[in-house]
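We give the entry.
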Amino acid sequence: MLLLWLLVAAPGPVRPQYDLTNYLIVAAHYRTGNPAAALREIREWRGAEVAAAVGALRKAEGRLRAVPVQASDIDFRTVEAAVLLHAEVGLVALAAVSPVDAETHLEASLGLFEWSGLAASRQRERASPALPIWPRIDRRDYYFALASATLAFGVPLAARPFAEAAARAAPMDAEVCLLSGCVNACLAEAFALRHRDSDAGRSREAAERDLRDALALDPGLQEARLRLGKLLLDGRRTIEAEPLLAEVDERGADDRQRYMARLFLGRVADLRGRHEEATRLYRRALQAWPDSQAARLALAHALERSSGPAAARPLVAASLAASARLVRAPDPWWDYPFGPRGLATAALARVWGVLDR
C-alpha cells in the first residue's frame, strides 16, 4: 500500500503527506483490500489530519460518482467505507477507554455519513448525466448500530444521540424504541450513582415512555416487557411490574428472558412480603440458568433469612466454585444494563455488510 510505503520510506521523523489522496487509498483498502492494515494506518493519523482530510473530501463533492469513469472521480462506495472505517476505529477506542480518539473518529464517521447522504441527494436533484448515487448504508441501521454498540461498551451517554437519531429516522420501529429505552434506563442508573437525581428521574421517565411505545408497536416484544417490568420494579411499583414479568416468565422467547423474569419476580415477592414465594422463584430462576450467580446468591439470602446461615452456606460455596470455572455460561444479569445480548453484533453485521469484502 502506498501509504504504508511512505510510512516506511520517510526519512527520520518527517511525517508522510496525510492528504485526501492517501485518505481515499486507506478507505478503499478498508472496503475491498486489507481492512486490518487500513485500521492500523488511520489510527496513526492525528485528529487535525483526519479533520483536514474529511474537509477536503467534502469540498470535492462534485467529483463523487456512483461508478468512477475518470481518474479524478471519487467512488461513493469509498466514501461509505470511510464512514464505517471511522466508526470502527471510534468503537475500538471506546472499548480501549480512549475517549479523545473515540470522539475524533465517531464525529468523523457521523459527519461524513450525514454529509454523504445530502451530497447524494443533491447529485440526483441536479439530473447529472452520470449514474445517480444511491447510498447503501440505511440511516436507521447506521444510527441503531452505533447506539447499540456504544451502549454495549457501557457508555450510554455516547449512545443517546445515536439512539435519538435512530428514533428520528424510524419513529414507528419497535426495536428502535426498545433500544432507546435501554439507553435511557442505563443512563438513569449512571446518573443515580452520581447522585444526579433529577437527571436520573428524567431518564427513567424517558425509558418508560420508550418501552411502552415499543410494546404498543409490537405487543409480542417480550424483551421490552421484561425491561419495563424491571424499570417499574426499580421504582418500587411492584403492582404494575408483577403482571409484566409474569407474562415474560410464561411466554419468554428463551431461557435468558425466563431467567431474568423469575429473578425479578423473586424481588417483587420479597418486596411484597411473600418470602416463601420469593424462594421458589429464585429456585426456578436457577433452573432456567444453572450457572447464575445472581440467582444463587439471591436464593442464599432468602434461605439465610428463613432458616439461618447454615442453609445458605452451600449455595455461597457453590457460587464461589462456579466463579473459578474457566468455562461457564456468563450470567445475563451482569450485562443486562447494556442492552439485549447480541443486539449490537447483529446490528453491526447488517451495516458493515455493504462493504465489498
User: Anything to note?
Assistant: The first strand starts at residue 64 and ends at 65. The two ends are 17 Å apart (CA to CA). Strands lie at 64-65, 74-75. Residues 1-137 form one domain.
